[in-house]
Amino acid sequence: MKKRMMSAFVVLGLMIALSSPSPAAGKHPQIEEALRALAAAKDHLQHAAHDFGGHRIDAIKAIDEADHQLRICLQY
To answer: pTM of the prediction?
Structure first.
């Protein structure tokens, strides 16, 4: 019961954090578009039938880092 309750609070916290608009929401449409493109590319890589010559894992890591950096940029 305690574990389920904690999980519910974690999920609720994530939902609140993800639903809050960034301070610069709408100010940088190209960066927001890039984030959507990165998410689509990551989804494609994760669900692909092959590993792209052994580069899939590194590509996903690079996408995650690019996503992180772009989200920092959106704060300004």
So the answer is: 0.66
